[in-house]
């Protein structure tokens, strides 16, 4: 659940999230970056990012 909170906050500040953000955002990096995000969300990560970008930036 912490991942989703960090991602939501990042989208709120940056309007979107993409794979590169996991390597440049300090909080996302502290959670383990893109590799750890894929471990947590599996193959669904890209779909989750797309859906969150659409819903939270609207």
From TrEMBL:
<dbReference type="GO" id="GO:0006304">
    <property type="term" value="P:DNA modification"/>
</dbReference>
<dbReference type="GO" id="GO:0003677">
    <property type="term" value="F:DNA binding"/>
</dbReference>
<dbReference type="Pfam" id="PF08463">
    <property type="entry name" value="EcoEI_R_C"/>
</dbReference>
<dbReference type="GO" id="GO:0003824">
    <property type="term" value="F:catalytic activity"/>
</dbReference>
<protein>
    <recommendedName>
        <fullName>EcoEI R protein C-terminal domain-containing protein</fullName>
    </recommendedName>
</protein>
<dbReference type="InterPro" id="IPR013670">
    <property type="entry name" value="EcoEI_R_C_dom"/>
</dbReference>
<feature type="domain" description="EcoEI R protein C-terminal">
    <location>
        <begin position="1"/>
        <end position="56"/>
    </location>
</feature>
């Amino acid at each position: 659940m912490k991942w989703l909170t960090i991602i939501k906050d990042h989208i709120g500040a940056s309007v979107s999230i993409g794979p590169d953000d996991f390597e440049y955002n300090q909080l996302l990096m502290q959670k383990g970056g893109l590799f750890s995000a894929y471990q947590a969300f599996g193959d669904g990560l890209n779909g989750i990012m797309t859906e969150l970008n659409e819903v939270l930036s609207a």
